[in-house]
Amino acid sequence: MPAPAFLADPAPRAIFAALPGARAVGGCVRDHLAGLPVHDIDMAAPFPPEEIARRLAAAGLRVFETGLAHGTVTAVLDRAPIEVTSLRRDVVTDGRHAEVAWTTDWDEDAARRDFTINAMSVEGDGTLHDPFGGVADLAARRVRFVGDAATRLAEDYLRALRFFRFQARYGGEVPDAEALAAIRAAVPGLARLSAERVWSEIKRLLAAPDPRAALTLMAESGVLPAILPEAGAPARLDAAVARGEGDVLLRLALLLPVGTDIAALARRLKFSGEEAARLRALHAIGTVPADPTDPRACRRFAAEVTARGHARPGEVALVAAAQGRDELSPLFDLGPGPDFPLQGRDALALGVPPGPRVGALLATTRAWWLEGGAEAGREACLDHLRGLL
């Protein structure tokens, strides 16, 4: 095939020149053949990692040993980073980690990859290498393991989750039967995966344009109950997908039924503090007005959500609608609400001494402001505050 345009950039050209026999591999080849944008370029070469690093540095590229133990370095030229990995073969696998050895055999390296569509490589002149039929599978929208599916899963159980992520983006209506059968049998092995790896894959799946069919397959195969037992029906994402709402945490919040222990989920999957706070804010469905046509109630709702700072009013309404509040659609596009117009210095200016009473007085005034539909202005709020002194 003609050489992909992304290989004509300065950084790939420099790597081809420094590493004879190097190829572009994996996702950049797959996405180029699928007609999708190529965001990251990965390359491989038939040299040990130390030799790769030495040759690249001698060619004037900046080299970072980002994964040397696994055979990977990152080469940078003109601010364009490219991961370059030694050809590898597995020596020992345990379902979670692998010990590898370096090789010069491209087919041996390709045989350790997960799916046929990820096992293709291309030389600098455009020569395509496809040892396992990835081109045909990509055209048929078929996500298929390289070789025996059960063997690939036993090497690394995370591949079960990766299957559904790739199925969501590249798969057709009929998934590969051998893959699904092997995944069902491999479900007990998922317990061996780290929380960080599981959460990373969940996020990447939920970022797909439409993950609903893949999530349904996950539920049917036993994978979803094993990694996210809190999840409700994938149809809860219908409105978000229809509206093009692709935020991962919003989609997760939509999947979670009322009463989900958000704190326990955040601990189990090791969310960041920001992720946990946003999910709690999105799931605060008790703040949604009973009557979405009441202007004052809607303004109060928007003000409360805005004050939390981790969600938009329309997002919280969308989550509430997924719990069965179909009448809330008028709130989906509700913008930020007003900010409470007073601060601590306003109480201090009225003679309130510094201390806990400042916060208590402001909280009481803010509650009055919200009860009135968050409509009172600054002077009205100051008058109410004075009346409490």
Structural commentary:
47% of the residues lie in helices and 11% in strands. The protein has 389 residues and is of the alpha+beta class. It folds into four domains: 1-140, Beta Polymerase, domain 2 (2-Layer Sandwich), CATH 3.30.460; 144-229, Orthogonal Bundle (cca-adding enzyme, domain 2), CATH 1.10.3090.10; 230-339, no CATH class; 344-388, no CATH class. Strands 3-4-5-2-1-8-9 form a seven-stranded mixed beta sheet. Strands 6-7 form a two-stranded antiparallel sheet. Strand 8 and strand 9 (128-129) form a beta hairpin. Helix 7 runs antiparallel to helix 10 and helix 13 (248-255) crosses helix 15 (273-282). The longest helix has 16 residues, at 356-371. It is elongated. The model has no long low-confidence stretch (mean pLDDT 93).
Brief summary of the model shown:
By secondary structure, the protein is of the alpha+beta class.
Give the helices and strands, then pairings:
Elements: H1 10-18, E1 23-25, H2 27-33, E2 42-45, H3 49-58, E3 62-67, E4 72-77, E5 80-86, E6 88-93, E7 98-102, H4 106-111, E8 121-122, E9 128-129, H5 134-139, H6 149-155, H7 158-170, H8 177-186, H9 195-206, H10 212-221, H11 223-227, H12 238-243, H13 248-255, H14 262-269, H15 273-282, H16 295-308, H17 313-322, H18 344-349, H19 356-371, H20 378-388
Parallel strand pairs: 2-5
Antiparallel strand pairs: 1-2, 1-8, 3-4, 4-5, 6-7, 8-9
